[in-house]
Amino acid sequence: MLLAYFQLAISMAFVGINISIGKEIVSHIPVFLFSELRFLIALLILLPLLSMRGEWKSSWSKEEGVVLFWQSFFGVFLFSICMLYGVKWTTATSAGIITSTVPACIALLSFWILKEKLLRNSLWAIVLSVCGIGLITFSGESQALSRISMLGNLLVFLAVISEALFTIFAKRLSGKITPFQMTAAINGISFVLFLPFAIAEGMSFSWGSVMRSRVYLHRHEYER
Fold first, then answer.
1. How much helix, strand and coil, in percent to the nearest 5, is found in the chain?
2. In terms of residue numbers, what domain contains 186?
3. Per-residue pLDDT tens digits for 121-147
4. Contact between 68 and 182 (Cβ < 8 Å)
5. pLDDT tens digit string along 58-112?
6. Which residues pair with 174 in a beta bridge?
7. How far apart are CA 46 and CA 117, in angstroms?
8. Which residue spans traverse the membrane (predicted)?
């Protein structure tokens, strides 16, 4: 049990790192294009690993396919869109605090969808999460900035719900497929979901702007 808690804590730490890095990258690369590149890199790593581990799976049951699709749609497609657009309009700190409510959302959705028992500690976590989000959203900022931040915070919270749904769907396949198989399948489906939008953005994106940004950053660091 302690190992499971540790693994969950590490995964949430990676989510936090992803938010900080994603906020910086989407200021230079469009959201859909950036997401597509992520999945391409992930697949180039995961597919050989699957083969090396002897976990290659060529056929999937209907239930597995349906659950994996909704996992990808909510937990990756919607999550990435809401999170990456959200962090453009709010601070990484606010986004990180809001995403820390994922466990509370999972507990609530597990109670609602999976009919799991909702413990008193979980109820307190949900209440505190709501209070924390409210405090962040309605903090004293200028009206124009506050509206933008509220939109960003709302998108990040929608990403949290999507992430919670991802976990709920993952429980449905627990023990039926391996984590590597699930990860590879989700990245493959997400790659397809993002592909048409990424192509549209890629056709109008100036790759030279990325190089110019890198040159500016290096020059700025050198001057400092």
1. 85, 0, 15
2. 31-49+62-205
3. 777 777 777 777 667 666 655 444 567
4. yes
5. 778 888 899 999 999 999 999 989 988 888 888 777 777 788 788 788 888 888 8
6. 177
7. 36
8. 32-53, 65-87, 93-114, 121-138, 150-170, 182-200
DSSP 78: I
Domain-embedded: residue 82: yes
Other CB atoms within a 10 A radius of the CB of residue 6 amount to 10
CA-CA distance, 7 to 57, in Å (whole number)? 25
Q: Decide if 50 contacts 56 (C-beta within 8 A).
A: yes
84 vs 24: CA distance, rounded Å: 10
177 lies in some domain: yes
- Asked if residue 168 belongs to a domain, the reply is yes
Q: Which of 88, 1, 60 is nearest to 186 (CA)?
A: 60
Q: Are 214 and 45 in contact (CB under 8 A)?
A: no
N residues, the chain: 224
Q: How many domains does the chain have?
A: 1
Three-state secondary structure string covering 64-77: HHHHHHHHHHHHHH
Q: Which residue has the tokens 């906020």?
A: 23
Cα–Cα distance for residue pair 201/73, rounded to 1 Å: 20
* Lowest-confidence segment of 26-40, 77-91, 107-121 by average pLDDT: 107-121
